[in-house]
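Deliverable D4.2, example record:
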Amino acid sequence: MMTNSAEHTNQPEKTGAAKGKKRRGLKTALTTLVIFAVVGYLIYDGMYNTMTYSLTVSEVLAKPLELQNQTIRVGGNISPDSVQWDPKQFLLSFKIEDDKSHLNVDYKGVMPDSFEPGREVVIEGTFENNGQFRATKIMVIGASY
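Output generated by the structure prediction step:
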């Protein structure tokens, strides 16, 4: 039986090269999608962490029982003449204040380079039942690194 060669020329053949191009295109698209998803998540996470709300000193002192032993962020200025630093034990005690109140803070760790009285800080930690704030992070606002 003879086949008509015209029938074979009208139908394109799927070659290995065509299949490979299609797979490469799909892999490229998926890789691009994954990269954009990761970059998007990193941008979101970075913005969320830097834009997290902090309470004022007065807000913390207005509801001490509600905030007791919870991890919170508090913003204020470092009170003049309140900084006590023990470099041997890495213990830092100071007060932060707003227009109305002040809050006693204890911190164990390395003192930030730009930490000085009068500077604005955001501290993160727990407000304890004795009225003391135990900081786990100190972020100096407006500091250049």
